């Protein structure tokens, strides 16, 4: 073969190799930036609101009921109770944390950072929340009303039997949680086991008696009821005991036992190892091929420049074509969804697949475009030099530019995907969509009388979980009542409050007659501290600790202040909250900062008072800045949007959304806290006041779906902003 033909053959081979190498560099870099990147998976989950949809769509789907029962460790709880409290047992932040752990474990394994795939789910947080729910619903609902020095044991055993009968009929039980002696625990065990098949009693006796002996009524009830309610119940009880003994769920073993072939992951891991070698080889081959093209190219350096550019651009075009072809061949899916899956699960997985493919395609096309633009720039420069050589730089300068642009194009195909690959978006108040909204444009789920809880044994509680658990489950504003401990005379006067039922008045009056003198310090109480009280400063410290553990969240306190402003400021100082307190503008009409700005400042605790207005600059009267609806509704039908304190035309809008009829009404809360009911009233009041609702104050925040309604309000506002 003549030297000329050999030279041309070498150039053709070098051109093809250069184009294919650029293609390979772009594709391998895209795979590493997506499939092997934890941020890619987090981004897909967040953009599809997967965690919110898990609660609002999947876990409330009747077809998924067996899964929700597993989440509650086979506790025999009515379905309505499961779905209404699933966020208490399995809060969104817990789900997010557990999911992130598995994403990191999988990507570390595929990249070769770990030698063994271990998908271990730490279920201790779930079990703790489960214990809280069981304690609240199976223990404290009656305990806070049976306030006496010695337990009424006969009543206690009667209530156990009654509760079990309620479970059989599918109703939520109420139990008194009372301390038991060994003898009482044995007698209570006898009472419970009478409802269990005789063949199961010996096996269950020890566990039930031990649980009752340590005051763990919920476990005793769960173990007994499992055997009393259904066939195969002994297995459910065993599952419950096994789950509670360990804090880790070996997901790898569970997947293998379920028949899933994990060998595919081992094969994928091997391919990833070769992918790294392939990327290194392709990069070296691309540089070598381009160098050969330059050396063996036409004598005119401008034409060499054009050939170089054409090879790089061709690689970019091939990469784009490969990405689009892959999408077309796969149909935009990684897996085929079985027809047996519930519709809610299928819809979520389908949307996640679509989003994942879209993001991978976008990343791949970005890498291809980088190479294409670099190649086009080189080609255009060479062409321009041929057309008007005298007006362009010297050949030496152009050669330097050519080398720089060529390396930049190749580096772009290699480095652009990791840099611009999808990652989890910034979150504000739990959502990436809210960061650009102002504080006065966002709705916050608000716990009315947040300190008055079942967990803290208030008489006539208006919430179930304690304050930090309320924050864990989505509450972002707390209405708190501050008091000094009252004298017996003060109590007698306050009992005229219509919020107290006759039974509550009797219990509190009896407490007055005992040796129960006023206590020093500052307290959070609901009208009467003897009806329930928690200390102010330690509670504020807990709120501060929660905020520091959740650096993208903002919390608002609306204080019904029965203590002085100076005392309040001193309590906040002792709680160490000075660095968290936000100071509102002196002008109530001034727009508030965005959530992003407040989070960046670190000042994420907003505090309002119902009476005071300063002197601390962060402690402002709510009704200078906000307005509200009436709050003394005795039935849902009485609810209106009429102006109340604060008048109209204020930037902040408090929607009082609770019924008070001889105390808080849990039954009414179940009705008015429903997503549709709350949304309908909120939108009606917004239309009437021509102002967005900011604080949705409800009793029993874990009953119904008030949080879902608030999230829908915020989602709509974020969409309107875009």
Write a short abstract of this structure:
It comes from Streptomyces cyaneofuscatus. The chain has 722 residues and is an alpha/beta fold. 58% of the residues lie in helices and 8% in strands.
Protein architecture, described:
With 722 residues, the chain is α/β, with parallel strands linked by helices. The chain folds into three domains: 3-48 and 267-420, no CATH class; 56-257, no CATH class; 439-721, Phosphatidylinositol (PI) phosphodiesterase (TIM Barrel). It is 58% helix and 8% strand. The chain has 28 helices and twelve strands. The protein has helices spanning 3-34, 38-47, 50-58, 65-71, 79-84, 86-89, 92-111, 124-143, 153-168, 182-193, 198-213, 217-229, 233-245, 251-257, 263-296, 301-330, 343-387, 395-420, 467-472, 488-494, 502-513, 536-549, 565-574, 595-601, 622-625, 666-672, 675-689, 706-721, and strands spanning 120-122, 248-250, 444-447, 477-484, 522-526, 528-535, 555-561, 605-609, 619-621, 626-628, 652-656, 695-698. Strands 3, 4, 5, 6, 7, 8, 9, 10, 11 and 12 form a ten-stranded mixed sheet that branches. Helix 19 (467-472) links the parallel strand 3 and strand 4 (477-484). Helix 1 (3-34) runs antiparallel to helix 17, helix 12 (217-229) packs antiparallel against helix 13 and helix 15 packs antiparallel against helix 16. The longest helix is centred in the middle third of the chain and has 45 residues, at 343-387. The radius of gyration is 33 Å and the shape is elongated. It starts with a helix and ends with a helix. Mean pLDDT is 75; it is low at 73-79, 133-153 and 229-246. Keywords: Membrane, Transmembrane, Transmembrane helix. Pfam families: PI-PLC_X. The chain crosses the membrane at residues 274-295, 307-329, 365-386, 398-420. It comes from Streptomyces cyaneofuscatus. InterPro entries: PI-PLC_domain, PLC-like_Pdiesterase_TIM-brl.
């Amino acid at each position: 073969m003549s030297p000329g033909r050999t030279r041309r053959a070498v150039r053709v081979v070098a051109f093809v190799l250069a184009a294919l190498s650029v293609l390979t560099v772009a594709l391998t870099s895209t795979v590493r930036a997506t499939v092997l990147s934890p941020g890619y998976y987090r981004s897909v989950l967040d953009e599809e609101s997967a965690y919110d949809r898990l609660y609002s769509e999947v876990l409330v789907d009747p077809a998924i009921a067996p899964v929700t029962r597993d989440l509650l460790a086979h506790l025999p709880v009515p379905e309505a109770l499961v779905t209404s409290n699933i966020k208490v047992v399995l809060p969104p932040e817990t789900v997010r944390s557990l999911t992130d752990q598995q994403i990191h474990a999988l990507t570390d394994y595929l990249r070769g950072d770990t030698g063994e795939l271990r998908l271990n789910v730490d279920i201790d947080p779930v079990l703790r929340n489960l214990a809280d729910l069981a304690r609240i619903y199976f223990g404290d609902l009656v305990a806070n009303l049976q306030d006496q020095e010695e337990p009424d044991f006969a009543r206690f055993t009667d209530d156990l039997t009654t509760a079990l009968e309620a479970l059989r009929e599918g109703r939520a039980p109420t139990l008194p949680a009372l301390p038991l002696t060994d003898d009482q625990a044995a007698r209570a065990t006898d009472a419970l086991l009478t409802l269990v098949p005789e063949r199961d009693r010996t096996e269950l006796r020890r566990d039930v008696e031990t649980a009752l002996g340590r005051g763990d009524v919920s476990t005793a009830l769960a173990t007994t009821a499992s055997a009393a309610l259904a066939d195969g119940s002994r297995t459910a009880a065993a599952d419950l005991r096994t789950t509670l003994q360990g804090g880790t769920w070996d997901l790898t073993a569970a997947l293998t036992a379920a028949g899933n072939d994990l060998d595919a992951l081992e094969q994928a891991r091997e391919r990833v190892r070769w992918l790294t070698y392939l990327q290194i080889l392709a990069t070296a081959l691309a540089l070598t091929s381009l160098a050969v093209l330059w050396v063996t190219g036409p004598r005119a350096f401008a034409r060499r420049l054009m050939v170089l550019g054409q090879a790089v651009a061709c690689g970019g075009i091939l990469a784009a074509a490969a990405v689009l072809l892959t999408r077309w061949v796969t149909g935009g899916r990684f897996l085929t969804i079985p027809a047996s899956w519930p519709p809610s699960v299928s819809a979520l997985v389908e949307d996640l697949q679509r989003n994942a493919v879209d993001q991978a395609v976008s990343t791949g096309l970005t890498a291809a475009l980088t190479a294409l633009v670099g190649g086009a720039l080189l080609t255009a420069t060479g062409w321009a030099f041929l057309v008007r050589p005298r007006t362009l730089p010297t050949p030496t300068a152009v050669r330097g530019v050519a080398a720089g642009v060529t390396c930049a194009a190749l580096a772009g195909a290699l480095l652009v995907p990791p840099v611009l690959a999808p990652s989890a978006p910034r979150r504000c108040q739990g959502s990436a969509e809210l960061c650009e909204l102002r504080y006065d444009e966002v709705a916050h789920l608000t716990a009315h009388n947040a300190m008055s809880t079942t967990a803290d044994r208030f008489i006539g509680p208006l919430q179930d979980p304690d304050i930090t658990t309320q924050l864990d489950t989505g509450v972002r504003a707390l209405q708190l009542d501050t008091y000094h401990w009252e004298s017996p005379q003060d109590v007698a006067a306050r009992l005229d409050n219509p919020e107290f039922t006759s039974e509550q008045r009797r219990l509190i009056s009896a407490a007055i007659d005992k040796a129960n003198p006023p206590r020093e310090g500052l307290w959070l109480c609901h009208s009467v501290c003897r009806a329930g009280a928690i200390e102010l400063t330690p509670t504020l410290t807990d709120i501060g600790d929660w905020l520091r553990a959740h650096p993208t969240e903002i919390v608002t306190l609306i204080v019904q202040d029965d203590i002085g402003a100076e005392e309040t400021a001193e309590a906040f100082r002792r709680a160490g909250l000075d660095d968290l307190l936000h100071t509102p503008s002196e002008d109530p009409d001034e727009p508030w900062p965005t959530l992003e700005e407040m989070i960046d400042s670190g000042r994420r605790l907003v505090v309002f008072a119902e009476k005071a207005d300063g002197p601390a600059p962060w402690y402002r009267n709510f009704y200078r800045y906000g307005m509200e609806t009436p709050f003394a509704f005795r039935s849902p039908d009485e609810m209106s949007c009429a102006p109340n304190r604060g008048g109209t035309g204020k930037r902040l809008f408090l929607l009082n959304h609770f019924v008070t009829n001889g105390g808080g009404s849990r039954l009414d809360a179940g009705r008015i806290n429903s997503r549709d009911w709350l949304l309908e009233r909120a939108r009606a009041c917004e239309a009437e006041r021509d102002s967005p609702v900011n604080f949705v104050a409800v009793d029993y925040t874990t009953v119904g779906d008030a949080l879902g309604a608030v999230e829908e309000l915020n989602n709509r506002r974020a969409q309107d902003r875009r």
